[in-house]
Amino acid sequence: MSATTGEYIKTTPAIKDRSVEAGTEKSRGGDHIMDKDLIRIRTLDKEDIVRILDQAESFYEILDRPIRKVPALRGKIVVNLFFEPSTRTRTSFELAAKTLSADVVNIATKVSSAVKGESIKDTALTLKSLGANIIIVRHSHPGVPELISKQGDFKVINAGDGWGEHPTQSLLDLFTIRRKMGSLKDLHVTIMGDITHSRVARSNIYALTKMGAHVHIVAPPTLVPACLEKLGVKVHYHIEEVMEYTDILYLLRIQMERLEQSFFPSLREYAQFFGVNAKRLEQFSKEVMVMHPGPINRGVEISHDVADGMDTYIEEQVRNGVVVRMAILYLISREGAGRHDVA
Amino acid sequence: MASNTVEIMDKDGINRALVRIAHEILEKNKGAENIGLVGLQTRGVPIAYRLQRIIRDIEGLELPVGILDITLYRDDLMHLQHQPNVNVTEIPFRVENSRIIICDEVIYTGRTIRAAMDALMDQGRPHMIQLAVLIDRGHRELPIRADYVGKNIPTSRLEWVNVQLKEVDGTDGVLLGRNLDRTSSEGTI
Amino acid sequence: MMLLKGGDIIDPSGGLSGVADILINEEGFIENIGQDIETDEEDALIIDVSGLKVMPGLVDMHVHLREPGYEYKENIDTGLKAAAAGGFTTIVCMPNTSPVVDTRSTVRFIKERAGAAGLGNLYVAGAASKGLEGRDMAEIGDMVAEGIVAVTDDGKSIADASLMRRVLEYIKMFDIPFMVHAESPELAGAGVMHEGLVATTIGMPGIPAQAESVIVARDIELAELTGSRVHITHLSTESSLDYVRRAKAKGLKVTCDVTPHHLTMTDDAVMGFDTNTKVNPPLRPQRHVDAVIKGLQEGVIDAIASDHAPHAVHEKESSYIEAPFGMIGLETSLAVLITRLVRTGILTLEQLVAKLTIGPADVLGLDAGRLEVGAPADITVVDPDVMWTIDPNIFYSLGRNCPYAGWEVGGKVKYTIAGGKIIAKNGVVE
Fold it and tell me: Strand (E) positions, C12-86?
């Protein structure tokens, strides 16, 4: 048995931008956004984001316990409603929900009646009458989480809506960065790749700018959406322009269909301008933290040598994904206000 | 808060109570072997650290201290007005087969301790769990009793007990008050 | 006989204004306009319209009535009732029905159905290409013989510039205009809203403004080549307007209309994913709204038309991307325009009425939009001061896809008179 002394409340990393001092009673409350859904980072404020990250921090050790289960969501029904295939995000949510003791139902397009022409509205109404408490939705069209949310008083979490947003990915990215760098404020984060069609890019632009980071975009002009700089980012077409100050290089997955649509001439040429390899990383002034929402196209966005060195990062991201989603599920799960505060 | 407040224990009173509890712990367990202190977030944690220090002064042995947040185990979790933030849980010793002494500032309904025991059991099978509290104010709703009590204070449900500890509140003292407009005390279960 | 006593006459066609009486004869024509008109006929209907605005029956040159083929969205009867309730005595329906209005018999069917309804005048715009497919010219002459007033492939442009040229040349022999829905299918792609900051913010595929203006530019060039009448319908961009302005300065036979929604809403409305804001051309940013308002003030824009496009509730209750384009307008146009353009001082009531009466009537050569002795007694009487809240649930239109739901608006139609008959009174169809 080893002894612990010293500071009486311990948090593992030295995190600077916590909104509240852990352990004070003042840290309760502030739950206005989380009262209903988690659909967009755009509509959250910084305090909401910090609250989620702080909560995730205190959940971190649960995954190390001998019994990886706490009873917080016992009796709650969490539905994974995925109109678009996804193994990683769905599994991550499922694990998070199960760690909190919720009952999890998975509905994927192939087996649901969505393909048979049942409307999104009817699907949501069915889930409502089945008693779903939280619906986690992924769909290829932006705005579908809002449409589902309108159908009942269940809570909705956006697991990706078309090119719209992917808030939980973004929150887990922030969590990973904050654990590594201590704070997000004043970091220079470069997001490189297909911005136009990326919900991850959108959510991360909102999240990072709200947290006080400087966001740079590097992309071919064909994949930069209109008026992007008005979102508070700086747009570049050449990676060399950001090498001096980049702390974090966030690479986006390039979809093969963009090639067919002539957004760029070939994967080879894309990799030549926007691919990251060890040699290119050496040209950066600082030691750069390379991030990627996965799965990586090896040899396109990231060369084999760099990708091979990312094993620890990928493991950490998987764990952080579960922890952050646990925090979100926990914060969102409260039933309507107005009941007794005291047992 | 519209109420008449009286201090029922001061800094020295708290200290004397904890010293006595430390002696009782050593006596009952025939020493400090294999004991781990677990403080419940928030005010149980400084109590655990104070007991650690007092026992070290007596026995020259430093007991390990764990921190436990029971929020996720609360039986009223989904019915609270505000979703409480969950604080860190950190048990730096093996729960399996150890003698655990749960430390908290007040025992009231007993529900917190029920949650704490469930949380501990999920971490392993302790040899024994004991409970040390600074104040027992009665009104149990579960068949739970403290092994070590600093002071028994019979209260009515209309009253509240507020334990202040330097590490959290900047000052030491136990206040008893009567709430004129509420029927129960905030945040204590 | 009907006598409207003491109304405040607004007739932009003849410049009639001021308080006067209007006498309508049994045949449904205006018998007399003037001061202190009396009638000695015993069963004459005398209506006191003092304090109210009396204007020519309104004309909407761009509506979708969905019949034949999509009667669950709207039909000729409900569409005409909506028009009557909204103060419109003359409307022009678009050919994108099923079957498409590309033959004489479909034109006749629609006109017969409208005749049976007896609620104002319905004119038909015929398809320019067979099946609106943009490949072969429709039997335009045959449809003109049945009374079509324009040709259009509304819903899309004719992508093939050569076919467009031939159609424009061909319609010269009938002296009817081509109503251009200006949209480059390649540039519009899979877009569902205006390409700009809002689309970028919410991650929606966009349609650039230039998808419209490149076709406007092309078709104006073809108007010059052919000398034909080209009417740009639901014009919505600054640049399109510039092209039209230049064409008019050059003396080309180019005209245009705008919709109430492109004058009163911006793409900000899409932010909440309300599918009732999905419309083609899409709602634009303020810069374009300001430009079309300026075009209206300067007189470059000839008409305002609703592009009334009803859809069933379930069709709009889907994702923004899946939902069909279109919003309804017949029952809201006048009040929304009075509220947002006249009450704000952007236009005078007379200027607005011109764009809703003589403006579209002249573009299409219709016998409508005038208050003069001998003209058909199509008259709309409006109380411009009544405030009301827009509630789509009580519309005559079967469509509920109204982006103005909940708006507080001013200006209510008191009487809609068509062919000397009251077809709607206080918003209730007779």
Answer: 16-24, 30-34, 45-48, 53-56, 58-63
Give Rg (Cα) of chain A.
21
Say whether pLDDT at A243 is over 80: yes
Q: Which positions 101-160 of B are in contact with A (Cβ < 8 Å)? A: 109, 111, 118-119, 122-124, 141
Report whether B177 contacts B160 (CB < 8 A).
Answer: yes
- Ramachandran class of C199: left when φ > 0, alpha when ψ lies in -120 to 50, beta otherwise: alpha
Largest pairwise CA distance in chain C: 69
Burial class of residue A257, CB neighbours in 10 A (0-12, 13-18, 19+): exposed
Contact A188, A246 (CB under 8 A): yes
Dist CA C37 CA C43 (whole Å): 16
CA distance C108 to C124: 9
Per CATH, the number for B10-156 is 3.40.50.2020
What is the C-alpha to C-alpha distance for residues C271 and A132, in angstroms, rounded to an integer?
27
Q: What is the pTM of this model?
A: 0.89
Q: Taking CA A47 as the corner, what is the angle to CA A232 and CA C204, rounded to the nearest 5 degrees?
A: 45
Distance from CA of A258 to the nearest CA of C (A): 14
Alpha carbon of B5: minimum distance to chain A alpha carbons (Å):
21
**Nearest CB to A226; choose among C199, C317, C318:** C199
Whether chain A lies against chain B with 3 or more Cβ pairs closer than 8 A is: yes
CA dist., res. A268 & res. C55, Å (int): 68
pLDDT at A336 over 70: no
Question: Which residues in chain B touch residue A76, judged by CB atoms under 8 angstroms apart?
Answer: 78
**Contacts of residue C159, Cβ cutoff 8 Å, sequence gap at least 6:** C134, C184, C185
Q: What is the pLDDT of residues A117-166, one digit of tens each?
A: 568 888 999 999 999 999 999 999 999 999 999 999 899 999 999 999 99
pLDDT-derived band at A15, boundaries 50, 70, 90:
low
Beta partners for residue B72, in sequence order:
none
Question: Using CB atoms within 10 A of its CB, is residue C422 exposed (0-12), middle (13-18) or buried (19+)?
Answer: middle
Positions of C marked active-site: 307
Measured between alpha carbons, how far is C113 from C110 in angstroms, rounded to an integer? 5
The helix (run of H) or strand (run of E) holding residue A155 is strand A155-161
Q: Chain B within 8 Å of A312 (Cβ-Cβ)?
A: no
Domains defined for chain A, CATH in brackets: 32-166+319-332 (3.40.50.1370), 167-315 (3.40.50.1370)
* Residue of chain B whose alpha carbon sits nearest to that of A21: B87
Q: Output the six-digit token pair for B72.
A: 């996720």
All domains of chain C in start order, with CATH: 2-53+376-382+409-429 (2.30.40.10), 56-364 (3.20.20.140)
Chain A CB contacts of B123 under 8 Å are: 65-67
Residue B140 has pLDDT above 80, yes or no: yes
Answer yes or no: are the C-beta atoms of B173 and B151 closer than 8 Å: no
Residue C237: pLDDT above 90?
yes
Residue whose entry in the numeric block shows the structure tokens 């009163």: C264
* Residue A34 with chain B: CB contacts under 8 Å: 83
pLDDT above 70 coverage of chain A, percent: 84
Distance CA B187, CA C90 (A): 70
**Cis check: omega of the bond before C281, within 30 degrees of 0:** yes
Q: Which residues of A touch B77 (CB under 8 A)?
A: 72
Interface test with A, best of B88, B157, B185 (most A CBs within 10 A): B88
Task: Say if C and B touch: at least 3 Cβ pairs within 8 Å.
Answer: no
Using CA atoms, how far apart are residues C87 and C337, in angstroms rounded to an integer?
Answer: 13
Q: Where are the domains of chain B?
A: 10-156
Q: d(Cα A266, Cα C96) in Å, to the nearest integer?
A: 41
